[in-house]
Amino acid sequence: IFLIFYPERGQKFSGKLGCCGWLLAIISLIFVIGLFPFTIFMCVKIVKEYERAVIFRLGRITDRKPKGPGLFFILPCTDNFVKVDLRTVSFDIPPQEILTKDSVTVSVDGVVYFRIYCPISSVANVTNAHSSTRLLAQTTLRNVLGTKNLAELLSDREGISLSMQEALDEATDPWGIKVERVEIKDVKLPQQLQRAMAAEAEASREARAKIIAAEGEMKASRALKEASLVISESPSGLQLRYLQTLNTIAAEKNSTIIFPLPIDMLQSFMQK
Question: What residue stretches are annotated with the Band domain (predicted)?
């Protein structure tokens, strides 16, 4: 009769449960049949599409494959089961005070996404899979960031997240957990360090601005030198330049007009 509910498993269970286990299972089955149909409500269980049930018979896992989704049967006196949710779960890593490789104290928090891919391992190998994963994520965050300096922490968040994911996935694999994604949410720096970094950045920008201005002055002086050489080849060219300057000043409607005096007229006086 037992094989009606669990066909082709009698030999497998007999090796695991032993004589006493078989006797209790048969007594429980007789009790179920004797009180049918009242016991049908105790035997039939339902799990949802995203859930699986791990059945224990007399403290032993009856099969290496979980039940569900849908209907399944248990013996009310000898069996109990644990439901396992297979959906992806996310949780926030609380802000952790971390000392970086270059001795800078920062506060870092993150988020982890994981799911259970082996319900039996998550029930049999660890007391609380979700809580254990959360604690391990906090420790892994401190261990990984402790090997990075501040510049790497601020610029290479993607690489740090990937390193944390690989470390967590390897550690939680015996628990039947798959870590799908790890993200660094925020990096908080001390106020004094923020002011120092801002002052350093401002000084760096000012230095670059001075260098650019000096390069511009040098290029302008070279251009003026080349222009003076071209004008010196033609004395009348300098007079035309004077007239252009006068035209520019007159166009702005200024009350004061400077009339350029040709330098050639003063050369005779300068020679005397």
Answer: 42-201
Shared domain check, 204 and 150 = no
| Domain span holding position 101 | 88-189
Which one has a higher pLDDT value, 157 or 4? 157
Same domain, 177 and 93: yes
Do both 143 and 100 map to the same domain? yes
Do 214 and 262 belong to one domain? yes
pLDDT in tens, 87-117: 999 999 998 888 888 888 888 999 999 999 9
The reported pLDDT for the residue numbered 8 is 38
Please report the pLDDT score of residue 271 as a whole number. Answer: 57
136/181 same-domain check:
yes
200 shares its domain with 266: yes
Q: Last residue of a domain, which of 174, 189, 204?
A: 189
